[in-house]
Amino acid sequence: AVLLLLAVLAGSAAAVGIYREDVNGDGEMNIVDVVALLVIGRADPGDPRADFNGDAAWTAGDVTALLNNIRQEIMTPVTAAAT
After folding, report:
1. What is the dihedral of CA 52, 32, 43, 64, to 10 degrees?
2. pLDDT tens readout for residues 12-21
3. C-alpha neighbours within 13 Å on the C-beta side of residue 71
4. Which residues are CB-contacts of 19 (< 8 A; sequence separation ≥ 6)?
5. Nearest to 67 by CA among 37, 27, 43, 47
6. How far apart are CA 20 and CA 23, in angstroms?
7. Is 6's pLDDT higher than 80?
8. pLDDT for residue 1 is more than 60
9. What are the Cα distances from residue 3, in Å, to 6, 7, 9, 10, 48?
10. What's the longest Cα–Cα distance across the chain?
11. What is the pLDDT of residues 19-76, one digit of tens each?
């Protein structure tokens, strides 16, 4: 569990995904991105990456929105302004 947490943190700090749903920047959208969002939000609720749903606050709603996008295979391209 600790190694997974370290991998998530390293991935989220090292890269930005092509899609907003790729929170940890590993090129895939899956449960690891949800864990990364949880870790980022708990570590720094003010981190802009933690506000996935755009309501200006990190909450369970951000995690739910990410899970729904992944489940529905919605991929939102990251633009230069969003990074």
Report:
1. 40
2. 444 567 899 9
3. 7
4. 29, 75, 76, 77, 78
5. 37
6. 6
7. no
8. no
9. 5, 6, 10, 10, 25
10. 34
11. 999 999 899 999 999 999 999 999 999 999 899 999 999 999 999 999 999 999 999 9
Total number of residues shown for the chain: 83
What DSSP line would sit under 54-74, residue for residue?
SSSS-SHHHHHHHHHHHHTT-
Identify the H or E element spanning 41.
Answer: helix 31-43
Is the distance from CB of 62 to CB of 23 less than 8 angstroms? no
Task: Assign 77 to helix, strand or coil.
Answer: strand
Note the pTM of the prediction, 2 decimals: 0.74
